[in-house]
Amino acid sequence: MITRFGLAPRKAGCTVARFQQHWRDRHGPVIGALPGLRRYWQNHAVAGSPLPWPGFDACSEMDADDVAAFDAVFAHPHYLDAGRADERRFVDRSRGGAVLTERVSGAAPAAVTGVRVLTLLRTAPGVGPGELAAVLRLPGRGGHATAVEAFVRLPELPGVVDGVEALWFPDSAAALAHLGSAAAEADRRTLAGIVVATERVLAAVHVVALDGGQARARS
């Protein structure tokens, strides 16, 4: 199974609230109907979060069986017609990007509740995905997070980032408390020399599709 993270900024003149509403209510069902997707989640930035803007407004998260399956998804006539046409309504397609990853640690909780802190990681020159994966697999990462997931870029493909770590918490207060904790500082220190840049977003997950493209929107 391959996980694709897609990052996209909103079009100029589109507010955050309008962007998120369109992404969730109109664009989500369009993309969720594509055959070949095993999972489609939207990571919506929590309103009022004190974290700085990470450089994007949408962070999509999709699963498919392999790279060829993703190629087929984005070559499907439904995407080329309806998907792209809708993206032009609210996404700045001249920026953003994506990364294809493999899950190297953890699993999503059975019930998608609460919030998650997504940390997008860029590795230092000369550091390969395997070295990053080894650190993200270390036990004890995430402090009091209720679940910890980690994804690393497929080594044969370029991507806008090299890894993603997702920490789940019951609410925003718990997530923000973790970011200032000794446990979070210890996690950051283990990445010294491996990672040169990070971006973080506090997000609520909107589940658009599961089980091979059968749309079941919920949060």
List the helices and strands and how they pair.
Elements: E1 2-8, H1 16-32, E2 39-45, E3 58-64, H2 67-75, H3 77-90, E4 97-105, E5 115-123, H4 129-136, E6 147-153, E7 163-169, H5 172-179, H6 182-190, E8 195-210, E9 214-218
Antiparallel strand pairs: 1-3, 1-4, 2-3, 2-8, 4-6, 5-7, 5-8, 6-7, 8-9
Helix pairs in contact: 1-3
Give a short overview.
This protein has 219 residues and is an alpha+beta fold. Helices cover 30% and strands 34% of the residues.
Describe the structure.
The protein has 219 residues and is of the alpha+beta class. A hairpin with a 3-residue loop joins strand 8 and strand 9. Helix 1 packs antiparallel against helix 3. The longest helix has 17 residues. The C terminus is likely disordered.
From N to C, what is the helix and strand string?
Answer: EHEEHHEEHEEHHEE
> Gyration radius, to the nearest Å?
17 Å
Outline: globular
N/C terminus separation = 23 Å
Outline the biggest β-sheet.
8 strands, antiparallel, barrel
Q: Label the structural class.
A: alpha+beta
Q: Walk across the major sheet and give the strand order.
A: 1-3-2-8-5-7-6-4
Task: Assign a percent range to the helix content.
Answer: 25-40%
The percentage of residues in β strands lies in 25-35%
Number of helices: 6
- Mean pLDDT equals 94
User: Which stretches are low in confidence, meaning pLDDT under 50 for 5 or more residues running?
Assistant: 213-219
Structure summary, number of beta strands: 9
